[in-house]
Amino acid sequence: MLERSRFLLAWLIITLSIVIVSCSGTGDPNPGPIIPETLYVDVIGTLPHDTTAYTQGFEIHDSILWESTGLYGSSTLRKLDLSDGSIIETYPLPDTLFAEGITVLNEKVYQLTWQSGLVLEWDIQNPVLQVSDTIDTEGWGICSVSSSTVVTSDGSSTLSFRDINSFDTLRTINANINGGSINLLNELEYVRGSIYANRYYSDNIYQIDPQTGNVTALIDASSLLSISKRINAGALNGIAWDPEREAFLLTGKNWPTIFIVTF
Ligand SMILES: [Ca+2]
Question: Which domains are seen in the chain, by residue range?
């Protein structure tokens, strides 16, 4: 009887030990997909926007809102008043160029073109069109991430980090959610260590880790434009960070409004 009790006690200890070990592992080796959080836009103000502006690039520098507008025959660089959205100056491009994204770096506006391979350059004090460089991809969006590096999009899920002096590609990342690529990335903005990209034909903005390409948040901006105002408006395309308001300015191609929002 004593032997049987000892055996049962040993069996109980071993069984409990197995249960404890199996419950106190170092973590589930396959935790499953990580779903980035969805954020929504909170509108804190609006500015009027020119409905003839086929917006391709949007960036604020020294309290000036710079805008690039596209299409052959009507592409421009524009200087807008950040307080009321009015146009201060318009700089037209040749009819053969289709303007795309812009970024301001080292007192110059760099402007991409869609399929010509040309990168344009404008001095912000005296904007006169100059060709800065060429790139071997389509030009869609651009933002500056340091004093020497810009990031460009080309309509795919690839974001290219480029040297500002040569526009040579230093490295690329693939924007993705759990390995699933997010293509059609268009206008870009770099804010506090994250790249924000809106996706063509959608009302989604993706917050992207510049090291890994992982999407860290999805911003649903579908509430911005009412159905009645969408009739003559195109896709959301335009993200500019306003450091004074600590807010994003969002607009789109031929939208009647610039929305001042927080996420
Ligand atoms: Ca931008």
Answer: 36-262 (2.130.10.10)
